[in-house]
Amino acid sequence: MAARLDARPVWPGKAQDIERSGFWKYALVLTVLAVFTVMVVGAATTLREVPPVPQIVVVEGTGRAWDGQAILQGQSAWQRYGLMDYGSVLGNGAMRGPDFTAQTLRLMVQAMHEYYAARLPAPGSAEAAGDRQALVEARVRRELSANRYDPTTRTLTITPAQAYALEKVEGYYRELFARGDPAASLPAGIVSARDVPALSRFFFWTAWLSAARRPGQAYSYTNNWPYEPAAGNTVTPGSIVASAVSVALLLAVLALVLWAYFRYRLQMEPTAGEGVDPGARGLFLPRELTAGQRASGKFLLVVVALLLAQTLLGGWMAHGYVAPDFFGIKTIAGIPIDRLLPFSVARTWHLQLAIFWVATAWMAAGLFLAPALARSGQRAEEPRGQATWTHVLFGALLLVAAGSLLGEWWGATGRLSAGDGPAGAGLWWWIGHQGWEYLELGRLWQLLLIAGLGLWLVLVYRGLRRALKRQQDPGSLAHLLLYASAAIPVFYGFGLLFKPGTNWAIAEFWRWWVIHLWVEGIFEVFTLVVTAALLVHLGLVRPSSALRATYFQVILVMATGVIGTAHHYYFVGLPELWLALGATFSALEVVPLTLLGVEAYDQYRLMRAAERSAGQAASGRFAYAPVFWFLMATAFWNLVGAGILGFFINLPAVNYFEHGTFLTAAHGHAALMGVYGMLALALLVFVLRSLARPDAFSERAVRWGFWGLNLGLAGMVALTLIPVGIGQLQASAGQGFAFARDPAFYQTPWVHRLLWLRMLPDSVFIVLGVVPMLWATVKGLLHMRPATAGPQPAEASGAPERAAARPALGAGGDGAA
């Protein structure tokens, strides 16, 4: 979030009337109601048109049949073993293994060709052979695209050729999981032989719905994805039209928003004309700390420890693509390394640790900021017992983190019971590996995490209570901070709406409410509000302008990001409604992200002005410049990672071929680490700078960490993820998605070289980025200032008479807006 250095009026002659009328509050409420109405209507449509799971599957003309519940048993096995963190189904999941939907569909096509080739008369000439081959290919496409499901009896009828193909599919996976594939990081016997038949039927079902035409439509349940011309799957006209419309609409809306933004001066205003008041308290370190603020320091140590563990696991997995023997390590304590730490477990921990350390940084910032925003003059205030409850929250966080990580290892290595029934929720579901990417932790740990987030919300509320009382208006900045904090546990709770046996498409619908709405919606809102609160707290911008700018940004994020979730629904069996909505609104998500990029330079100018003003003051220098480094990095990666790379892969005509390639990984790394990771580190540095004694805060180490992290991230995205992703995109468009996602693709010489090259930016990221941040954090926490500070060094003293005169957040005057 940036601030303009000019203080020209906003909406001359009408600004105060508009603000007093509650325009921004009502506009945000109406926006939220509108977008969630669309999502609720879409949810109802999804429930009506979800791909069916048959009760019985009958082989035409043979009298053979098998129980359709085996499909759900296979889905349960897929989840129990954490295979979504090895390969993918319907394009969603990890990229080390194949996409099992695309692979199964190709296996079926090959087996059905073989079936009919053996039963047609031998050709008498080359011309006859060609006609015979064309006849076979046409028959296979016709049978795969025909939808023989009867909804009245819940019976799916398949042809003898499809039944033959299913036998071949089961034989293939039985052999694959028995012998493993060391070159593809798949341990032998990782999946029990008794689960293979059901698992094969689950893969068969996803392949069936990817080719079978929706009733009354000319395309399949997955909009003809994956690309497999031999099965009749090609890009739909709707995908092309939606792509064109989304680009045109993007240009129109972007122009409109930028016009309004600059025409009505919807930026923040600095506190004093063209510069920053050198006496503003926020330019310097706080004079006093509360016991609760000091207690929040231990969260920072968890942040950097988890960050280090997560990045080491990332480097481990990246190396596994090119040297699956893991640096020549074969065993540890006599246990094969691929069984002790399978790729699926490493990736599970890699994702979960990312969520944990980012969330922990935000917890620490919320706990530290709340009493600071509620202060009276220079004195921060907090309710009785805040420090004790902060210690309790810290213990609960460690319990959930350690318990869930251990449970995920137990579950994914097959050490927990499967439960009763076709998709029973045994121990694997409650304390092991739920099997959903980003939501891997067992249901018990998930419930405890939500409870922990609830406790954190209560502590934030207790800390903000004085500020909330001063700001009676429920639309004030302090209230917005509370609402954004409350949304974090609420939206994570949507992960509770599915269980074992839930139709895959329905579960994916709600899973993306957590991943996209929670991360790319609510996290984005939290980012905007916390950044505005930080700028106000540092005394750099006027609270009224910060509030107005925050409302404008939040409205844009909610208007585009919520419905933009639909771009994840193209190919998981949901109705075509989501194709148009996803194409349009995911493209429009670029608008607020572009706006943040436009503001980044202004933010930089604001920091420099603060440094100059502080340097001119007798009291010292601007203490929080490192925080601004990471805030600017957040704005940069928001535009590049979430905006540019997100837009590139989300156009339906591109996503049809790209879905589930390294381009997705490029977007994911740049957006998750670049945006939410950099914001989390900005908050870490802010809290650390405030807690540590001035002589114990290592700005040099933080500078090294900043450049190491950003250069390392840029290197892995630009040198490896994007080039390999473009190669996969070309391979998918030319030879089908199954070929692009086959593990053998990564052994292509040029791909192999690029994957080796990634070791360089990975090393920069870890050694020059994470390690210095760890050092700075440990050093600062070992030398924290006392809860009641005495006279501070010149750098920290500030100008108390001016600082006390400046209104607190929302405490009258300019802050009352």
From TrEMBL:
Domain Cytochrome oxidase subunit I profile: 497-713
Gene3D superfamilies assigned to the protein according to its UniProt record, in alphabetical order: Cytochrome c oxidase-like, subunit I domain
SUPFAM superfamilies from the UniProt entry: Cytochrome c oxidase subunit I-like (SSF81442)
Keywords: Electron transport, Membrane, Respiratory chain, Transmembrane, Transmembrane helix, Transport
UniProt-annotated stretches for the region Disordered: 789-817
PROSITE patterns to which the protein is assigned, alphabetical: COX1
Domain of life of the source: Bacteria
Pfam family, one: COX1
Annotated Low complexity bias: 794-809
Transmembrane segments: 23-44, 240-262, 299-318, 349-370, 391-412, 444-464, 476-498, 510-538, 550-571, 577-601, 622-649, 669-692, 704-726, 755-776
PANTHER family membership: CYTOCHROME B SUBUNIT OF NITRIC OXIDE REDUCTASE (PTHR10422:SF38), CYTOCHROME C OXIDASE SUBUNIT 1 (PTHR10422)
Protein name stated in the entry: Cbb3-type cytochrome c oxidase subunit I
Species of the source: Carboxydichorda subterranea
